[in-house]
Amino acid sequence: MPSSDDSRVLFDSFFNNVNGRSRDAPEHYHGVNPATREPLWNTPVATNEDVNDAVLAAENAFHSWSIVPFEKRAKLLEDFAELYASYEKGFTELLVRETGKPKWEIEESSKDGSAKSGALAESLHLPVEVLEDEETIVTTRYVPLGVVAAICPWNYPLVLSVAKIAPAILTGNCVIVKPSPYAPYTALKLVEIAAQIFPPGVVQVLGGNEKLGPWLVDHPGIQKISFTGSVASGKIVAREAAKTLKRVTLELGGNDASIILPDVDVISTARQVTMGAFRNTGQVCLATKRIYIHASIYRPFLDAMHTFAQAMKVGEPDDPDVELGPLQNEMQFRTVKALFDDTRANGFKFAAGTSEIPDSLGFFVSPAIIDDPPSDSRIVTEEPFGPIVPCQPWTDEEDVIARANDTKTGLGACVWGKDTAKAKVIGRRLQAGSVFINSFEKPRPDVVVAGHKESGIGGEGGRLGLLPYCNPQAIHEYK
After folding, report:
1. Is a pLDDT exceeding 80 seen at residue 123?
2. Annotated catalytic residue: which of 78, 105, 192, 251?
3. CB 260, CB 293: distance < 8 Å
4. CB atoms within 10 A of CB 402
5. What CATH number is attached to the domain comprising 175?
6. Same domain membership, residue 285 and residue 271
7. 130 and 18 fall within a common domain
8. Whole-angstrom Cα distance, residue 253 to residue 96?
9. Which of 213, 353, 399, 454 is surrounded by the fewest CB atoms within 10 Å?
């Protein structure tokens, strides 16, 4: 395996990568440091020619890569994880600038992610089914699709790039990564490092403007789109991909409900629920966004959440005491601000936080808890993707299950209670792809994440997450 060489990976210059080589472009764009609003580094805007070149390189690489044994592909992925780990410091500093996340949080998730990705590659395998009778032996296996476009979001630009690259190449596909223009830097560097491990054309990256996504979705040489983003954008991807019958995996938004049963320990549960609602400043698809608290403990539970929310320090990511950084970009800052404005204009009660967002150097918003707003209010029906969460009391179990399910999305849900058997009975009735009992949403790389309803199509993660990157093929052998 190649050893790390810091001279080969400079964290202050950024390029697209086509066929294993860095590539510039006539036009450039840049992200913004969300903590300071200062412009970051220039990066190239991919052209349609870049897209065609990348697809051609991937198609050429696919012929040989697709027949590399699974075990060898897994070993190269482990080598990639090891090489990435040698650059962790650089990636940590880059993510701080790119996302505004607290540095301690990035360091923890980075170490955890690099360790798990190697272990995951070693443990995963594609299933093979063999049926035999007097006449035939039928072997069903899973074969790679071809060229995959991985369209990644800005809230977790590194983690979610890896989450798409790993299953694509493990299953024998070649992948072209498209990072968000709000957070392109870590993905560009990640693929630059990957080019030291994988053959040219197997892993490529193109950053650019609003034209790039449609070019990839429309391209006849691409067989699959893996997309993480909003429900509205996911519908556009699905519609356009249908024109060439591309396979799609869509991991979209959610409006996750948490149901609090009356027998919980109020203080310890309120602490965890508060963390689940506000981690990463609320910018998590699979996260608590509506909280239903049993009426018998509603007021003390709300008071405890208020205490924990008020204690969360919001500020610069380099401060070791900071728990919440800024929102990642101005677009999301304006979206969240509009939701605060609507909540204030309707006279809903703020149990924690302030109804107005003060001006600041960065996109900072303090966490807010809304006390019993109407069920048809925007704060209940919409996904805020920011640090504001509604709480409502409940008394009837059937009613609260119906309220939790009264949404077009179904990504995740949580049920909290000392009687875990009862909590699981409720959890099984919730219309969500991932249900957590006595925990806020904690997705694992070895378990599939799949949205119900408008939260997506297909799933990613674990062994089941490999199958959407494949076509089943049945070999009928006659004796």
Report:
1. no
2. 251
3. yes
4. 11
5. 3.40.605.10
6. yes
7. yes
8. 24
9. 399
